[in-house]
Structure formats: C-alpha cells, structure tokens
Amino acid sequence: MLVGRLLGEIMIRFKQPGVMGQLIAGLVLGPSLLGAVFPDWHHVIFPNAKEQKAMLDAVSQFGVLMLLLLTGMETDLKLVRRTGVASAIASIAGIVIPFACGVALGEALPDSMLPDPGKRLITSLFLGTALSIASVKIVATVIREMNFLRRTVGQVILASAIIDDTVGWMITAVIFSLALQGHVDMWSIAQSVLGTLAFMGLSLTIGRRLVFMIIRWVNDVFASDFAVITAILLIMCAMAIITDLIGVHTVLGAFVAGILIGESPILTRHIDEQLRGLVIAFFMPVFFGTAGLSADLTILKDMNLLLLTLGLIAIASVGKFGGAFVGGKLAGLTFRESLALGTGMNARGSTEVIVATIGLSMGALSQNLFTMIVTMAVITTMAMPPTLRWALSRLPMRKEEKQRLEREELEERGFVPKLERLLIAVDDSPNGKFASRVAGMLAGTRGMPATVLHIPDVSKIESTMPDTRDKLDANQAKPEEKKVTQKTSDNKGNGSKKTNKSETKAEKDEEKAEDASEVVQQAAAQIKSKQKEEEKADNPVEVTTIVHDEPSPAAIAEEAKKGYDIFIIGLEETSKQSSEFARGVTNLAKGFEGPLVISAVRHDLLKKPDGKFSILIPVNGTDPSRRAAEVAITLARATKAQVTVLYVAVRTAAKRGVRRGIRSRRHEEAILKDIVAIADGYNMSIRTAVVAERAADEAILGEVDRRNHNLVVLGVSRRPGEKLFFGDTAAALLKKSERSLLFVAS
After folding, report:
1. Same domain (yes/no): 555, 632
2. What is the domain extent for residue 201?
3. What was the pLDDT predicted at 319?
4. pLDDT over 70 for what percent of the chain?
5. Is 701's pLDDT higher than 50?
6. Which residue from 23, 208, 230, 641 has the least number of CB within 10 angstroms?
C-alpha cells in the first residue's frame, strides 16, 4: 500500500493513471527488481510460507470482486444508449480484430510457451480476450481530466469502453467455463453462452428491481451504521456465487451487481463515496501489487521472450487501434474522431491484469505469458494518455454539440436533477391532490421513488419537536402508523376504485392514500411522455403509501433519516387566504431540515387540480428563486404551460446616476438570461418581464392579473422562529393572492 501510493502519486504528477503506480509497485517489490537485487530482503518481506500466500491471495481475490463492483457502479448504461449505434459498431470492431489477432498469436506460439499444449485453444482465447478489452477506468480518467467527458467523441469512446468491458467479462466467464470442463464442444459452449445470457437477462430485469427493493428496505428499516454497505457486499457475493454455480467466473456476477447498484435510484452518491475509499485505499493496491509480484520481468533478458513481448505489444496496439478506427469510420465518425477513438481504446490497464490473473490462477496462461501480458498492459496504458490528449486537442466542436454541453452544464448546477427521493405529506383535499401531482412530475424526471404520507385528519397533527441531538429512544412510544401498500407504477395508473358502503374508516383512509399515490404515478407518466428519449429514466416511479393518524415533527424527522431530498406538503388549510401558514403545515415542516415545497391551490386549480398550468416565476437572482424556476419549468414541460419569468426591479438611476441604472439593467438581463437558458435547454419558449418602482407582492399580483396566470412558483428561504415564515413578500402573497401558489423553500 505504501509503495503503491507513493508511485501512484508520481504517476499522477506525470499525467499518468495512478493505478499504474500500484501495478509498478508490485513489479518493484517482486522478483523483477527487489527479488533480483536484494533477494534476502524480498524473502523477508514476502516469505514463501503457504499461510502468507493464502492470506495475500484471499485479499487479492476479494479485491477483484470489489474492483469489478466499483467498475459496474461507474458503468453508465444511459451513456451507451445515448451514443447508440456508433458506440456499438466501434466497440464490436475494436473487439473482433484484436481478438482474432490474439487467437492467431496463441495458435502460433511454440509448445514451450504454453502451460498445457493440449489446451492450446483455451490459452489462445485468453490471449485474444486480453488483447481486445479496453480499460474503462483508464479511459474515463483521461477523458475526464481533459474535460472531454461530455463531448460527443468522448462519450462514444467511453461508451465503447463500457461495451468492451461488459462483453469482455462475458467472454472471460465463458472461457473460464470451457477451461473448467477441460474440453471444447458445442454443448459446453452453448451451456456457457446460454447460462451467461440468461443471467444477464434476469439480472437487468427482475434483478434490477430486486436490488433496488433490498437497498431501500435495508436503508429504511436498519438503524445500525453502514447497513446499506453490508447489503451491497452481500448482493455482490450472492451474484458472484450464482455465476460460479452456472459455471462462469465470479467477476461477471460482481460486475453486474455493480451495474444494478449504480442504477438504483436512491443513495447512489453516498454509496459510491463510502465504497470508493475502501476499494481505492486498500483492495486496489493489494490486488495490483500482488499481480506485479507474480510477474518476473527478468525473463525478458531472454532475447526470444523479449522479441515475443514486443510482438505482443505491437499486435495488441495495431489490432486495437485499427479495429476501433475502422469501427469509428463505419459508425459515421470523422477521420479525426476515429483517430481519437482508436488511441483512446488502446489502454489495457487494470482490465487486462485481472484477465491475466484469472488465466494464470486456472492454468490457462504460463508464468511467462502472464509477465508478457502485464508488460503489454503497462506500456499500452502509459502510451495512451499522451496520444489521446494529442488526438482530442485537434477536434473542433460542432454547433449542436456546443448547445448540448451548455444545457448539461446548466443541469449540472441544477436542483431538480440532483433529487433522488421524495417525501410527500397530503390530505385528501384538492390541495393534497395538487401537491401529489407536483411530486409526480418531479419524480418522473429521474424515476425517483416517493413516499406518500397520507393524513386523514389534519387537526391531529402534533407539535412535538424532534430532538436533534439524540435519536428517538427505541422504547419511546411512536405515533400510530400503518403501512398501507407498496407498489410500482407502470406509468399508466391503476384506474378507479369502487367504494363499498360497509368499508371501515381505516379501509377508506387506505383507499384515499392509494388514490394519492395514483396521482403521483399519473403525473410521473405525464412528464415522462414529454421527455426526450435520452432523458427518460429507466426505473418506473415507485410509490410507498403510509397512513399516519397522528403525525408530528418527530415522526417526520424519523422518516427523513431514510434519505429524502425534498419534502412536499399539500394540506387543505393552506388553500385559505391568510398571512400565516396553518399550524399543521408549520408542525410538519419543523421535522424536515431539507428543502420544502408547499402548495396553496386556489381559484380554477382548486376546482380542477389536474388542470392546465399558466405559470409566473418571480426571480431575484438568488439560489432559492433559481430552484423555484427549475421546478416551474419541470411542471411546464409536462403540461405545455405558458411561462412568464418576472424580475421586480427598484430603479435608482434618478438618485444615483445613469451609470448605476445601466448596471442594474445588466444585472436584470443576466438573471433573466440564466432562467431562459434553462428553458432553452428543453426547447421551451418563455416570456420575460421586468417591473420597476413597485412592491414585490404588488408587482407579482399585477402580472398574474395581466397575463391571467393561475400558478405562482416562488423561491423562498426559511426564516428563524417558531412559526413557518418565508418573508414579507411570501406572507403578502399567501394572504392576498386568489391564484394558486407553490413555495419552493431552501
């Protein structure tokens, strides 16, 4: 770990991937250098005792699974779909040509180079695999470093590497199965291929939902620290065991587990941060260091082996570059883009080392072949960054690419794209239905899971404050709570329900709660239907409904510990015109420290909560107003609503000179331009307006009347105090406005 970390730092300072330092650390500490120069010291540090080797091997093998888990979590399937045919063609051509070269090389090797001449085909297949796979980690590192991750060619390169990795692990799993059986026939090949395809198919369908349900259940139920990490490791182990049982290598199970966990719509950032430190700080240096220990570069003193190694490097480089370049041209890329693709795909790095380690451990590769492959991996990986930088620096940016990058940059700074899970508290009033609809539209943008907290009687909302210093006492009596249903939306709704007169109150409450969840699901379907194909979330919106007879701030705080990003409140009391929020809304808001969305439906939307919107967005250049604008634009996309962005200005030119007035106008234009840019990214047209010399609330109400808007979406901040207070402007609107209001609070 020490030598790997130090050499990794040196590599990074020379603009090389840090993982190469860990691999070179093994070469330095192994027979290639330390063992050759100071054999006694090498023996002291790495004794030949079986126990020592078994310990290192155990950590190393588990490290392989952890590495593949992390690689899978970093695999972006949306990116593959977005780049589509281009990535698929480039990847397939980039695999087939070097794979054929590797197999041909294996068939031409003398018997003395093979661990078992009777299993030459297995060795040839492993060589072909080692020459054909690109390293996603290395490719992603260089592209990210050069700020090309969002460029079209950068996405094609990365998506091709992802396909390479996925296909490569499937090929490795099949070859492993063939090697275990000891012979090659059509039946054994069919078994391995069909077993692998069945595993992939079930994993990406049923498995995806199952993994999400497990992660969410553990997160919501377990109170102990890092319970979700334990669940993820168990999922990884279970899927690795399944692949082992069907006769393919465990790395495929770990890789697919990582993909499914990375696709989970909740907790992805937290999981990634917690796992990454463990893998990068401990498992990666141990695994790559152990791989380096197994290689002995002193064999290259033999001229024949040196020439063979140089030939292997040449075949690997030319084959991979040529295959990717041809694939890029076939996919319609320009010469320069294909050149960048060929250089970018020519990095082996960690992937080849893992494949070679598997081949060595199962006897498909000899020690000499293993050392040759490790040498090839080091040299091609270190050659890739400078050549890719050279190729990328020569690429001009297209107009449509520039527009897409600007939109993605806005989203990167956005509020709505970063939401992962919603908490909704509603009653069965029109305002509750309206809030549920708003929540559904937000959830539908990213396939976010949502929990609907249905409140049958708002008068029973308690005011008990949560203790922020300590967790709730496990023996403390909690408010009565009853889980009603848990289901996944098919984005079509579930139709209407018949009411039985003999139903109990509890059954009626459950039915109303289910109605609220249907509103969420239908709204999610509405926003999804308006999204572009590449924007749509893979996961359906899953809604959990809870009936809470006596909710309180403490109960909300306890629920919030499960990891919600925003709390949406819609109670009938807020629909009444008043300068203060109702007690129930205030008490619920006390229990949630994060962002709030509070609805106050009035006028036409009170009669028809599912009606069309006409939205006014007051802005002032602050983060809360920008967040509100994002929420409003999301709602407008779903309903094709007319939108006006209003800036209320106080002109000071008469008092402070013309120069000050010009600065003010430029400031207004910049603020409005920022909001218009968000709408432009979704091909939406919105109006802008500036009102001067009027109080903010009067200007807003005047614009509402002039444009006949039926919804004002206002960004606000919570102010200190016992009562929920968002400032004088919000209080005035709450009291005076006859049209619906939506407060988006930081």
Report:
1. no
2. 63-396
3. 86
4. 82
5. yes
6. 230
